[in-house]
Amino acid sequence: MLFITPTELKPHAGPEPPPFAILLARACERISALRSFYGAGPLDFDFRELVREAAAVRCTGGALSWHQAERRSGRSGQVHPLGGFTGFAEYEGALRPFLPWLEAATWTGIGRQTVWGKGVMELSCPAGPALSTEPHPLGPSGSGPDPR
């Protein structure tokens, strides 16, 4: 997993890559919420079972950097934190059942404040190219600093 723009996944707050179950849970929540608000209604799937199965996937490595940023509201003058981690995480295990969720998350973003550009991610495979055959909607992965 490549985290292209600062990403914040609750309740993960450590400098190490997030557990796969948390990553998948945030992806499922985002996709399900978007469908509830803009699509045919909530998705019919067993969220708890999916996350329970995802707990068997292990993180085998990665490197993340924390980026602190903020924005000031022009209307209220209030300051909003926009920080998050970028970098990469490697996961190992039975990933195939989760690939549709992760592929969708490359289009929707993941985690907090995606409407402000946070949470852009990409799937990659160490033995080959990125899993997606479509260009990322927010631009090529080569734009910006290399997260590796």
C-alpha termini separation: 11 Å
Average pLDDT reading: 85
Could you list the spans in which at least 5 consecutive residues all have pLDDT below 50? 132-148
> What general form does the structure show?
globular
Query: Major sheet: order of its strands?
Result: 2-5-1-6
DSSP, total strands: 6
Write the H/E string, N to C.
Answer: EHHEEEEHE
Count the DSSP helices: 3
What's the story with the biggest beta sheet?
4 strands, antiparallel
Radius of gyration: 15 Å
Q: Beta fraction of the residues? A: 15-25%
Structural class: alpha+beta
Helix content: 25-40%
Can you characterise this structure?
It is a single chain. The protein is an alpha+beta fold. Helix content is 25%, strand content 22%. The strands form two sheets. Strands 2-5-1-6 form a four-stranded antiparallel sheet. A two-stranded antiparallel sheet has the order 3-4. It is globular and about 45 Å long. The termini are close together. The C terminus is likely disordered.
Short characterization:
With 148 residues, the chain is of the alpha+beta class. Helix content is 25%, strand content 22%.
